[in-house]
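Table S2 (continued). Query chain:
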Amino acid sequence: MSIHDIAPVHWQMGQTLLPDHLIAQENALTANTFLRHQASGLPFYGIGKLEWDKYLLAKGNLNLTSFRVFTHANSLLVDCPGNADIVSLPLELKDTSRVKVYYFILQSPPAMNTEQLPHNISETVARRIFKVILALQPALSEEYETLCKHYKVIDQGKLAEFVEDNNGGWKLSERFIPPLVQIGVSEFLLGPLKQLNILLNRYLKETLGLYQKQQLPDIKLFEIKHCINALYESQQFLANHIGYPKQKPELQLHPYFLYEQLQKLHRQLSLLSGEWAPLPLQNYQHSDLHGTFKTLFRNVVSRLKLHSRNSQSFQLHLKDGKYQTVLPDVASRKDNLYLVINCDQQPSLADEDLPCMSSHKRISTLFHYSLSGVGLIPVKHKALTHYFGQTTQCFRLQEGEELDHIIQEASLSFLAQPEFEAYSFFLFYQPQTSSSTGVIHAPIK
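Corresponding output:
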């Protein structure tokens, strides 16, 4: 943008009206609009709308029916068929199973404007029509050499990638996403969003059933409900973008808002699983939407898929002179089991006062032969602190014969003692796959 481009034309009565005056006024309005978009703080360049003949695409022929793009320079609006024509022939996708498609935007200088806009517009009104060329190579071929002598390429970029499936049909590839200014007006990101929506709905249903069965302090249940409420917000956000049963979506927001919502969803899922480790920072990259959303989708989807083996807690209730509870059916020797003692302003239990524990059926054997029970190793665990607070004692159940009995019988028990009455006892089950040592990524393209 050169100096004073944004300044409007100074009109006076009786002045000579030349095309240069109108062109200068047009440039001023364009520059003004561009700066207003910049003031929003969001990158405003890229694909605004993209549609094609789906039947022809499946056959390997790309024929665009609608194409809208905002250029990198000044965010000029190029809309086909509004103010642009696609002058290249429909592309034939062949010779390889993956095809990259590029676009080129051409504009003529004001002196060369001879194009006429159809649709019953007076032939005396000349219009400047953008030219759009689609190609399979990142550079224009020699066949457009003559056209380039009269038109200037003002914008170009990679439009999309298409892949051939096992049945010989063609479809949009998820391995590339061009810069977008809206979500929902093209097929980009819709597939992963629909998959995410299905997993999130299932996750919410399972989570409600899971935590309703667990015995946790009221303050922790409140925190869990707060996280679940945030998940409902993400569910509503997705419904606004991809629709709801029998309802079409009416919102097409900038992809940054989706990025921000997925970041919040990832953080809430991490907190809900009891992890307090700070998540790695990832900036929004408008020029690399595939890289930006690939990491986010993988992290979120992996947590949703691991939910069936998420950490769980079970209170040991006093019954028939024993504190006892059952283990999850999926518990195995590879998983971690913890005993959590909620002291609740009581002094911590000394090592010699800790309960002697084993499976429910084996407790009588321990008592009869004065066996020591499963070994208890003191630990400091962020997830346990998250669930039960700071006034707790945490012990990991040590591997050995007694732990084998506990796993095999899927139960944990110990004899009641008078000194235990002021304490609450919990079994915390943490599957190996949900440990805080790392995130297991789902296979997203």
